[in-house]
């Protein structure tokens, strides 16, 4: 199983050279003939009735082609609960609500026109704290639901609940138990390339969207629905994905700005582009949800967990996007990280007048693992057991079924924990006088797709040309994570061609088969599984046709070979007789008989064979299509049960930190990350994924928070919103990959895009506690919080 | 009021007419169609728009276009060789896996080039100082720093 030719070897990313040369084209770089520039007028009020919108001055500005509001455009409802609108009509519910938009011949005129739009509001009292929003008499964010039925409270109508075993019995069995409340802030994806799109209608009113999306096919469905809302029934959208300047979950839903661009393009009959500036992106793109998690865990005298009880409260913001379904993922660590049999999990989401939230890398898992793994350390101290031993004692094992019904296939958690302990010199203190400490944390994450929709499938087309090139059409999105790199490796490996002959075509709903989206660390898992299926199908086709055509080609080859090598005597070998499907092999782009003599003339170049197949009477070109839906289940989230993924990724990270007790500054001395990745596909790309995710975890742990006051984002720039720079990331990171060779994984591999940031924050927090004895329960762990905690401890 | 200015862009003289409020990045991207220079923030915070002006790495989003008059500007488009080959630093970024989404890459490479051009034997600290103004959200910088180190060593050997 390990004699791969390309898998696990150094890959060359197909997109790197263009990116290094500045020749990759992002949405910012794309132009269409006659294109106009759109700009949005945002409310600037967190909660208010719209009394009047005056667009007359903007309309009169030279160069303006359209000014739209909810009053002169059809209503387009968006979001999976249909509680949001492309343009707001009667009231605004968040500071960033879209109330009007313009299209103009250049961006400066569009900006000026937006400033000329005057909106009269009647302010309403707002609510910005989920606890407040749950109280009786709190202002209602939505007076009615999408069906027009009156609402009486601010609870989002989504239920995430799990109960298994006997919680009370688990509590009785516990000798030690610890309770804690942990909170996490809103943080932003911070893609270096901001969001944007271009919308263009043809004369049949079909739409083409160049969109910065991770879900081209679900976006197509959403946009087609919008076309219907606009009266364009039966019309189609083609979604084309340009080079993405990062994704990190920000492209997992369709956004109001995209629908506004569509409306402007339809109104003007011209292509229209909207691209967010950085401050627009910070203020108007949905971030990661903030959450508060109350957790109690208990263990018996031997340190075995006996119960876990979890209550989550999330600030949903004013509308609903995928941030609202984080509890569907939180449930996974809550029920299944470490063995625990009596579990209670409940999550509530509340509407507020804050900015609404969406997906971000890890999708609820970093939030929950932060609470769970901080609490694990507290419980270990309480029980007087070493924190590493405590985790080992309760670790998951291969082939177990967890309380949520997750069917664990392979599980490298033991090896991950041991690796972290060994590399971190666990148990040895660096120096006595320095305030240094060590901490660790583990993770479980979906590693074999994630069924959160009725289909978790992905299709793939392989189209051979006359030259032995393999054109690949796949609906997954390359956003920098290296999907196209592993996909070309997988095609090369499974088909038997050189990776250079594999051409990954742009993601386009018009040419690629359906894929549910690039999320939940499923990209490589799905793409490579489809690649293997398609390659096997194609190999059979080629070998079947070769039965007839290989002998002729070999004969021609032999003649040429003998001309060059006059004294050559071919071995006594009956080529036509040996030309049987099952005896052919294809490797490095050559077809040969695997158990035959390995003479050079018996190696037929694939392109030549393909031409022989093509250019004859009744000739054919080879194209293969597959569609793969992994063996997993759509969980019943109200009961909290179902095997959401076909396999699970595990990992552990460790940190050693030094804390300055005078300033509260935390200096990370080193980090260790050990991940069960199933199989390493592209070693360099994999390292990049973990380094990068870990850096986001460091930001989450120590620096990042989207500050909001009365619903207004206060730090919409990189000056005030700090992501780690090369200075903060100045410490050694020791990576180790545990290969568990999963039977569901392509070549044994599991998904790995998100796991790298899941345990980072609790590992750092646990190290801080080890160093100075203060536990911060509210991310990010700023120097101010540490100083305050140290001060309180001295009292 | 528009002013005619001329400057050297990647070794060739160009003439453009600019408004006083135009930024260098607008001239490069919009007037000259050189979209390799990326705008990540427009406020000089992210470094995606880094270009080299007379040997110094500069944020082109903060640089008034008219001030470039008579100066020499290098953008990412000026780095590749005559046969469409990548320069040593670019190639090193490719080989070290220092590129993910790639949006920060042109700016990173130009900051690295300005450093290596002025200091042929930079320490890791020098490299980190030079890249401090260039944000990357994808890589955690590990492979980027490695790429710059390797490129500097290779260029030194070539000399």
Tally the structural domains of chain B: 2
Instruction: Give the helix tally of chain A.
Output: 19
Query: Biggest β-sheet of chain A: count, sense, barrel?
Result: 7 strands, mixed
On the 0 to 100 scale, the average pLDDT of chain B is 97
What is the string of SSEs of chain B from the N terminus onward?
A: EEHEEEHHHH
Order of strands, main sheet of chain A, comes to: 3-7-1-14-11-12-13
| Uncertain spans of chain A | none
CATH topology of the largest domain in chain A: Aldehyde Oxidoreductase, domain 4
Number of helices of chain B: 5
**CATH class label of the largest domain in chain A:** Alpha Beta
Q: Can you give the mean pLDDT of chain A?
A: 97
Tally of strands of chain A: 30
Helicity level of chain B: 25-40%
CATH architecture of the largest domain in chain A: 2-Layer Sandwich
Total strand count of chain B, please?
Answer: 5
Distance between the termini of chain B: 47 Å
Q: What oligomeric assembly is this protein in?
A: heterodimer
């Amino acid at each position: 199983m390990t004699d791969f030719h390309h898998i696990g070897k150094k890959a060359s990313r197909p997109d790197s050279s263009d990116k290094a040369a500045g020749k990759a084209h992002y949405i910012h770089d794309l132009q269409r003939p006659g294109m106009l520039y759109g700009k949005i007028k945002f409310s600037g009020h967190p909660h208010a009735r719209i009394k009047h919108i005056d667009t007359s001055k903007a309309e009169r500005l030279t160069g303006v082609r359209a000014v739209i509001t909810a009053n002169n455009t059809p209503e387009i409802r968006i979001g999976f609960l249909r509680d949001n609108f492309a343009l707001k009509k009667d009231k605004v519910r968040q500071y960033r609500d879209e109330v009007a938009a313009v299209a103009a011949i250049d961006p400066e005129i569009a900006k000026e026109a937006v400033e000329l739009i005057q909106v009269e509001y009647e302010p309403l009292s707002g609510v910005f704290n989920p606890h407040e929003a749950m109280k009786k008499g709190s202002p209602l964010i939505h007076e009615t639901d999408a069906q027009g039925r009156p609402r009486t409270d601010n609870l989002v109508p989504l239920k995430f609940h799990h109960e298994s075993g006997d919680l009370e019995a688990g509590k009785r069995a516990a000798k030690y138990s610890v309770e804690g409340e942990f909170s996490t802030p809103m943080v932003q994806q911070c893609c270096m390339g901001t969001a944007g799109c271009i919308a263009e209608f043809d004369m049949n009113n079909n739409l083409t969207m160049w969109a910065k999306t991770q879900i081209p096919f679900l976006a197509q469905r959403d946009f087609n629905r919008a076309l219907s809302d606009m009266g364009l029934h039966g019309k189609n959208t083609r979604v084309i994905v340009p080079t993405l300047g990062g994704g990190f979950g920000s492209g997992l839903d369709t956004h109001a700005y995209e629908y506004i661009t569509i409306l402007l393009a339809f109104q003007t009959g011209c292509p229209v582009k909207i691209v967010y500036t950085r401050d627009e992106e910070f203020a108007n793109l949905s971030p990661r949800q903030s959450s508060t998690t109350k957790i109690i865990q208990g263990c018996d005298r031997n340190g075995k967990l006996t119960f876990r009880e979890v209550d989550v409260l999330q600030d949903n913001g004013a509308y609903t996007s995928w941030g609202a379904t984080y509890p569907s993922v939180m449930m996974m660590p809550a029920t299944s990280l470490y063995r625990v049999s009596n579990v209670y999990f409940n999550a509530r989401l509340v509407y507020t007048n804050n900015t609404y939230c969406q997906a971000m890398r890890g999708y609820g898992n970093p939030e929950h693992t932060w609470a769970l793994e901080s609490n694990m350390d507290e419980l270990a101290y309480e029980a007087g057991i070493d924190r590493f031993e405590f985790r080992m004692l309760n670790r998951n094992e291969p082939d177990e079924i967890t309380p949520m019904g997750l069917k664990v296939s392979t599980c490298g958690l033991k090896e991950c924990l041991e690796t972290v302990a060994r590399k971190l010199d666990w148990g040895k203190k660096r120096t006595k006088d320095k305030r240094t400490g060590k901490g660790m944390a583990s993770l479980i994450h979906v590693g074999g797709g994630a069924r959160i929709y009725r289909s978790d499938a992905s299709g793939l087309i392989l189209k051979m040309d006359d030259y032995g090139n393999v054109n690949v059409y796949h609906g997954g999105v390359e956003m920098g994570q290296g999907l196209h790199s592993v996909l070309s490796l997988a095609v090369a490996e499974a088909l038997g061609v050189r990776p250079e002959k594999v051409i990954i075509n742009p993601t386009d709903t018009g040419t690629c088969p359906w894929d549910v989206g690039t999320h939940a660390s499923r990209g490589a898992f799905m793409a490579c599984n489809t690649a293997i299926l398609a390659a096997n199908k194609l190999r059979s086709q080629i070998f079947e046709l070769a039965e007839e055509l290989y002998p002729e080609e070999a004969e021609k080859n032999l003649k040429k070979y003998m001309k060059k090598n006059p004294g050559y005597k071919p071995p006594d070998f009956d080529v036509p007789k040996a030309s049987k499907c099952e005896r052919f092999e294809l490797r490095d782009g050559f077809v040969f008989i695997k158990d035959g003599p390995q003479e050079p003339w018996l190696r037929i170049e694939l392109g030549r064979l393909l031409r022989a197949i093509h250019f004859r009477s009744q000739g054919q070109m080879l194209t293969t299509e597959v569609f793969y839906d992994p063996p997993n289940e759509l969980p019943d989230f109200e009961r909290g049960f179902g095997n959401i993924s076909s396999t699970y990724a595990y990992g552990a990270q460790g940190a050693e930190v030094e804390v300055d007790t005078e300033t509260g500054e935390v200096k990370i001395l080193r980090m260790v990350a050990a991940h069960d990745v199933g199989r390493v596909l592209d070693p360099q790309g994999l390292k990049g994924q973990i380094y990068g995710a870990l850096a986001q975890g460091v930001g989450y742990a120590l620096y990042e928070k989207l500050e909001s006051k009365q619903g207004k984002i206060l730090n919409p720039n990189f000056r005030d919103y700090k992501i780690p720079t090369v200075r903060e990331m100045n410490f050694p990171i020791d990576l180790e990959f545990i290969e568990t060779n999963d039977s569901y994984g392509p070549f044994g591999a599991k998904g790995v895009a998100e796991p790298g940031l899941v345990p980072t924050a609790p590992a750092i927090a646990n190290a801080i506690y080890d160093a100075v004895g203060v536990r911060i329960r509210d991310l990010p762990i700023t120097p101010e919080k540490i100083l305050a905690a140290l001060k309180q401890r001295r009292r | 009021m528009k002013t005619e200015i001329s400057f050297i862009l990647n070794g060739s003289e160009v003439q453009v007419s600019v408004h006083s409020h135009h930024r260098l990045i607008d001239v490069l991207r919009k007037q000259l169609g050189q979209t390799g220079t990326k705008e990540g923030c427009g406020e000089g915070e992210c470094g995606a728009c880094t270009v080299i002006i007379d040997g110094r790495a500069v944020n082109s989003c903060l640089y008034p276009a008219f001030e470039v008059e008579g100066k020499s500007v290098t953008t990412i488009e000026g780095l590749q060789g005559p046969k469409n080959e990548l320069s040593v630093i670019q190639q090193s970024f490719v080989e070290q896996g220092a590129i993910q989404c790639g949006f920060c890459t042109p700016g990173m490479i130009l900051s690295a080039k300005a450093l290596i051009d002025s200091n042929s034997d930079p320490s890791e600290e020098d490299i980190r100082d030079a890249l401090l103004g260039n944000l990357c959200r994808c890589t955690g910088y590990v492979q980027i720093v490695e790429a710059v180190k390797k490129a500097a060593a290779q260029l030194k050997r070539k000399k």
